[in-house]
Each structure stands twice: as C-alpha cells, then as structure tokens.
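Appendix B. Chain record.
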Amino acid sequence: MTFEGPTTLLGVDASSSTDLGVDLRSCPPPQEDGAFLVRAGKRQSCWLRQGAIHRAWTAPSFIDMTVAPTFEVSGGRFASVVNGKRLLLWDGEETRLDKVEGGLDLDKRAVDLLRQGTGAPGELVVVFEDGSAQALS
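Structure tokens predicted for this chain:
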C-alpha cells in the first residue's frame, strides 16, 4: 500500500495535536503489507493495516503515552510506556491504557522501546532519557 499526496486517515483525530507521528518500526514484519502505527499527541494511538484502523488505544488526561504501543514484543503482547516510568505489557485488546492491569515501574524515565533482532517478536529494549538501554526478557 502506498500513499500519494495528503491522505486522510479516518478515525485519527489530530486536529488538536501538534505531535503526530508515524512509526514503522513498531509494526508487524514486512509480510503484513501496509501496516504502521500512528500516534496523535500523548493520548491517542492506532495501528493501521491496509488503510484501516486495526486497533486503537487512548489514554485519559492523567496519563501521557510516552511511548506509543509497540506491536507484539513477546507472546503476542503489546508494550507501551506511560508517564515516562511505567512499562505496560498486555494483549493489546484493552483500548484504554488506564484500564491495563499490572505493569512495571522503571527506575529511570524511558523515551523509546525497540525490538532487538530481525524477527517478530523480538526482545524488548527500553531506551532511557540518559541514553542508556536495557533489554527485558
């Protein structure tokens, strides 16, 4: 799937956001053609596949989506960092991040999540604000 020129992504409300990002790293492997993640601000993110919203996640005003959900890090789970220091791992079905149970409190502020390895799912690596990184297993 390719986009030519301006494209409207139905269901993505970026009208009040100055922070709209597209992340190809967080998506399924190349065999899933046309999949990518769109993050609108700190409270809305969706996974688009074949030009349609496949999954969407939101956060209430007291939660900042520091790192938007990353596709399938292990065992079919998704990962996200909220409020800088809380790592969430869940099945991706819960769409409100404040309703995701559990999580891991981090000692330092995280700024990114990466998957290490060439296949999916890969090992999850948390990148911290100070430049350090830590693999989670």
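Further analysis of this model is presented in Appendix C.
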